[in-house]
Amino acid sequence: MRTIGDGTRNTARNWRLWTSSPTECAFGTRTAQFHVCGTCGLVPFVTIDIDGHEYAVVSVNSFEGVPASMLSRAPASFDGEGQGGRLARRAKNWIPSVLYIDDGA
After folding, report:
1. 56, 44 in Cβ contact below 8 A?
2. Coil vs helix vs strand at 72
3. Which of 47, 34, 31 is nearest to 84 (CA)?
4. Helix/strand/coil (H/E/C) assignment for every residue in 14-36
5. pTM for this predicted structure
6. Is 75:64 a contact under the CB 8 Å cutoff?
7. Angle 91-96-102 (CA atoms, 0-180°, nearest 5)?
8. Secondary structure element (H or E) that encloses residue 90, with its range
9. Cβ neighbours around 55 below 10 Å, total
10. Given CA atoms 62, 66, 71, 73 in this order, what sign does their dihedral have?
11. What is the predicted pLDDT for the residue at 85?
12. Burial of 45 (0-12, 13-18, 19+ CB in 10 A)
């Protein structure tokens, strides 16, 4: 299990992620690392290093027990987005201070 969060003790901004034999993969522009569960193939989070600073995004699809009514879904397309724009968007919207805690569970 891994805990990923914003580096604070604010539990509302920290997530515990169970992954079995996680593998890191890169796709497309190879700007981000997709952390894939070796058992189920789910990608619970993605990380990126931008100018020596690590950012992350957590997939709500990996949460258990979250009612669909709590989620707001909207289509998104990043076609035509250049690498500079992609990195700027991620730096603005992703979790800004990533802390990993491997607790062996």
Report:
1. no
2. coil
3. 31
4. EEEECCCCCEEECCCCCCCEEEE
5. 0.69
6. no
7. 130
8. helix 83-93
9. 20
10. positive
11. 92
12. buried
Half-sphere exposure of residue 52: CA atoms within 13 angstroms, side-chain side: 0
Distances from the Cα of 77 to the Cα of 74, 86, 89, angstroms: 10, 12, 13
Confidence (pLDDT) at 87: 93
Amino acid at 70: M
User: Which residue do the tokens 């920290």 mark?
Assistant: 14
Residue 12 has pLDDT above 70, yes or no: no
- For the chain, the structural domain boundaries read 2-64+82-102
* CB-CB contact of 7 with 99 (8 Å): yes
**Least confident span in 63-67, 77-81, 97-101:** 97-101
List all residues 6 or more positions away from 47 whose beta carbon is below 8 Å from its beta carbon.
32, 33, 35, 54, 55, 56, 98
